[in-house]
Amino acid sequence: MEEINSDIGNIMNWSKQNELLLNEMKTVVLVVSNSYTLEEIKSFTVDINGITIHASDEMKCLPITLDSKLQWSAHINNVAKKCYQRIRALYAVKPYVSHENLKILGQSLVLSLLYYMSAIWGRAKKSLLKSVEKVLRSLARLVMSARKFDPIAKIITQDLEWMFPNYLCQFTTLCITFKLLHCDITYFNDYYTKKSLVHDHTTRQTSDLHINFKPCNKYGRSMFYYNSIMSWNNLPRDIKNITSFVSFKRNLRKHLLEQQASTLT
Predict the structure, then answer these.
(1) How do residues 117-165 score in pLDDT, each as one tens digit?
(2) The dihedral of CA 224, 227, 230, 234: what is its sign?
(3) Which of 58, 130, 158, 183 might form a disulfide with 67, Cβ 3.0–4.6 angstroms?
């Protein structure tokens, strides 16, 4: 605790020297760990300019809500609530707009909320992702004028071409991975290592990415770095070899929708 408070003191001094002021009243402390550790340090506090700040169970960073166990339950519940509010509003305007315009409104007002940071929260528990899937089904029934208990999964996949949470997570993760592999930003030059650079053997996995560790817990398995490599290596070779982002995105979307459709039969 003393070391953390000392580090915070150094940060405060640096901020003052550079004319940057920290608003203590808006500062939140979030301790991320497992249940056992959180129970051990439940009285964790930090002191900033004489003000004691207690650890919080969650905090909001821009539109995403972080929780102390990185389960994303608070974020998903908040997003689902906002989506249902917007879906109810769309029902009110439905009689006055065309089917195509209603679809555009649904995508811009509702799907935009679901897509944001889906590469991060998309690794949440299946029970939480179910609530996101219910939002997607509700929006599809609105757009397609389907009744509450009508089958809608195939329509979502084939007609609307929307992806369920797990496939959406793969899609956004792989789009980011493609950009990191093809960007000219020095910071990310060594973020990934291709297997072709690890050994000289010419194999089918030449375009695959090398991973030098095996995660030992759920936090490791949910890391973006680990999941991006595993998802990339599972892609067909012809998609991995595409150099244009527009073409990659189009072919990736088609590939994932085909996979999604195969699970519905």
Answers:
(1) 899 899 899 999 999 999 999 999 999 999 888 899 999 999 999 999 9
(2) negative
(3) 58
